[in-house]
Design a protein that fits this description.
Elements lengths: L1 H29 L5 H4 L41 E2 L8 E10 L4 E9 L7 E7 L4 E11 L2 E10 L7 E8 L5 E7 L4 E8 L1
């Protein structure tokens, strides 16, 4: 009986030590996490502005699970500033977007993404089931993420006219898609190359 109690105490002590270590690790991790709104704020570049400095330090962007898909994107860092869209983004991307903050919906998206610099048109986007489409103009580019302004050109009565869209590269070569509109609605999805 005494041997079993000793073994149980050792397990409890080991468990307490593991919880302490995990808590310390989580606290360190959280010091580098930022909110959605603040993640890119310090790195914004206006059209035509130079981006010569690297990011101020490591900043990890943690994202919530995507709608009812059961998918949670991998946390990412934007990386160093770039003058144009990085090559890994240059492709046609498709996937499903899950929208929150309003009518909860999901819809397919297709993005034909080309190169470009801040202020230039870099993509054409289609939301076929919403019967709308438009273009993206690059706001900012980093090594692992881009942020653009989406302007709807057809089907404006079906889609929000102007939203901010961010794409970030995932470790498996897919991209995490996120938009935020003026009404506070958020759309998220994982897109793959077509």
């Amino acid at each position: 009986m005494a041997e079993k109690q000793g073994a149980s105490r050792k397990k409890i002590v080991g468990w307490v030590a593991a919880v302490g270590t995990a808590t310390a690790g989580l606290a360190t991790f959280l010091t580098n996490v930022t909110t959605i709104a603040d993640f890119f704020k310090s790195e914004e570049v206006s059209a035509g502005a130079a981006t010569t400095s690297a990011a101020a330090g490591p900043r990890t962007r943690v994202v919530p699970p995507i709608g009812d898909s059961g998918v949670t994107p991998t946390p990412y860092e934007a990386g160093e500033s770039r003058q144009s869209v990085p090559d890994p983004f240059l492709a046609t991307w498709t996937g499903i977007v899950f929208q929150r903050g309003g009518p909860s919906t999901k819809f397919p998206v297709e993005i034909e993404l080309a190169g470009g610099r801040p202020g230039e048109q870099i993509a054409r986007v289609r939301y076929d089931t919403l019967d709308c489409g438009g273009v993206w103009r690059l706001q900012t580019a980093w090594a692992e993420a881009i942020r653009s302004t989406e302007s709807i050109q057809s089907g404006r009565s079906h889609c929000e006219d102007t939203v901010t869209v961010t794409l970030s590269m995932q470790p498996d070569g897919q991209v995490y898609y996120e938009f935020l509109d003026a009404e506070g609605r958020v759309g998220q999805g994982i897109l793959h190359k077509s």
